[in-house]
Write a structure and sequence with these properties.
By secondary structure, the chain is mainly alpha-helical. The chain contains eleven helices and two strands, in the order H-H-E-E-H-H-H-H-H-H-H-H-H. Strand 1 and strand 2 form a beta hairpin.
Amino acid sequence: MKKTIFLAAGLLLSISAQAQTQILDILKSTVKDRTGVDLNNVKTQSSTKTTTTGSTTTTYPNSNINLGNLTSSTISSGLKEALSMGVTEGVKKLGATDGFLKNEAVKILMPEKLRKIDATLRSVGLGSLADQGVKLLNRAAEDAVTEATPIFVNAITSMTITDAKNILLGSNNAATNYLQTKTQTQLFTAFQPKVQASLSKVGADTVWKNIISKYNTFTGQSVTTDLNEYVTNETINGVFKMVAEKETGIRNNSALRTTTLLQKVFGAVKK
């Protein structure tokens, strides 16, 4: 059978177009009679998945995405809900007593520039002073972190339909990255005066002046550092870590999709 087909194909190259058509029809008829395959109805399969979202048809090659009948508005609402949930829960946890101090993922340690102070203080029996200094840095962050909420809310509210789609189909922390891009500068500007006030409020600035003074006396050095800038950056980093943790959970664990909207939107993307 295969030999017959190859011979026929060779003959097609050496005869007129009209004769080629006639022979091709005969060949198709022979194949159908002997194999049951109708060559006129053979279609090429595609590995591309096409999904209609609202009035727009979107194609995702070789994907596990099935957005079904989700509209752009639904996708946007789902992403905003997930981000709002991450921010609200993250800030609430971090703003509680020990929210930073007892959470190893975000705990603010002694500034790297001052790590040698820690060892020196402990070597002369002042380890409790070093511990108090670290504790108060975290207390300042816990006091200041609530300033993040309105800034995040503004960024979430201004999210566009395009932003939402890109975030939904992005990586596990795509939403967190979006927030970071939109809010990093604003957060630093808003946090700095609040952190400065918090450092003073919890007594961290006084304790750290004492720590650095004692270290300089013991070593004959002159060490200084900008604690306000350091704690501000560490506080912001802590918030983003908590939001990213919540986002990853919602994307990968259906049990954390606690609303119908989250189930519908994130359930359409199988990681």
